[in-house]
Amino acid sequence: MDGQIIDISLLPEDWREGRFLGRVATPEGPSPVLIEQGQAYDMAALAPTVSALVEARLFTAEKGRPLGPVETLRWLSPIDLQVVKAAGVTFAVSALERVIEERARGDSGAAASLRARLEERIGGSIRSVVPGSAEAAALKAALIDDGMWSQYLEVAIGPDAEIFTKAPVLATVGGGAAIGVRSDSGWNNPEPEVVLLVDSRGEAVGATLGNDVNLRDFEGRSALLLSKAKDNNASCAVGPLVRLFDQGFTIDDVRQAEVDMLIEGEDGYRLDGHSSMNQISRDPLELVRQALSEHHYPDGFVLFLGTLFAPTDDRDEPGRGFTHKEGDRVTIASARLGRLVNRVTTSKAAPAWTFGVGALMRNLAERGLLAPARAAPLA
């Protein structure tokens, strides 16, 4: 829980005009923080967690405790008790790559020829169809007849989106922290995404950036290995801060967001990627609706919206595609959300995650930030 110093250059150029939500590591423990008009305020005395702050809509720092300059604080992941959900296969390129993983059985060497064949057969049609529409149903029928159907195409163009749980509560890491891939994975990649912060009522209140680190070899062998491909120590980065929606930043800014990614290896390797949110196949708020479903998240949730980025360039051997190496520096950037920067290690070598819900509750109780429980009424 040491946190990371945020360089001002990692924040949006207009960060002094926006309102941002985050968490900092203090000597006493983690505290929710609001940034308003360029100033940071500790909100723990009013709401001990980010979740409580969101549920109470304490989005003004009037009664917060002023902190020092933003660049002197030690920032953590900006979320705490929210469930971490993710939507998969929300872009056409992502759908094709998941089909390739499935057909290649997790073998990166077999991906190149499959990619060319699938792109030729269904690339154009999958980009133009609206998920859940009559046209999508007709395309599905044609692909089934052609022997080209896949469970990934079902969630790409069918009525139901793929929604899964990415990480346990409190397990995400923030900007500057190490991100982990399993030490036994030989085909993996970052997934740069926009992430929505959603309250318990299903209302999106802000957005941030995320890295949905993915193991392509595990998921490619079987979709039933999704949890092993997605949920590992330090495999989910969020940050650097949540930008709250207001008159100057709305859900429409999310719909039109441009997301850039840069991978810089210690071996001199460099790979640039780009995602345009206007290419997403389902509206972000529709994905929120499907994530909420009939469930109730009393502490809210965050939702990764999926990625257009699927690196296919060869890094080493021809035909082997891209995979991470230890020491890779991954930068995910969007003009209104800032830059999320992390360095790659293995999940085994990354700092162990030890500060869970129990530890947080004990810490808040010791700091006197939890209201005493009221006695239950007599029967």
From TrEMBL:
Where does the signal peptide begin and end?
Answer: none
Keyword Transmembrane helix present in the record's keywords: the answer is no
Q: Which SUPFAM superfamilies match?
A: FAH
Task: Give the superkingdom in one word.
Answer: Bacteria
Is the Ribosomal protein keyword given for this protein?
A: no
Classification via PANTHER family: 2-DEHYDRO-3-DEOXY-D-ARABINONATE DEHYDRATASE (PTHR42796:SF7), FUMARYLACETOACETATE HYDROLASE DOMAIN-CONTAINING PROTEIN 2A-RELATED (PTHR42796)
Task: Please report the name of this protein according to its UniProt entry.
Answer: Fumarylacetoacetate hydrolase family protein
Q: Which organism is it from?
A: Sphingomonas morindae
Species lineage, top-down? Bacteria, Pseudomonadati, Pseudomonadota, Alphaproteobacteria, Sphingomonadales
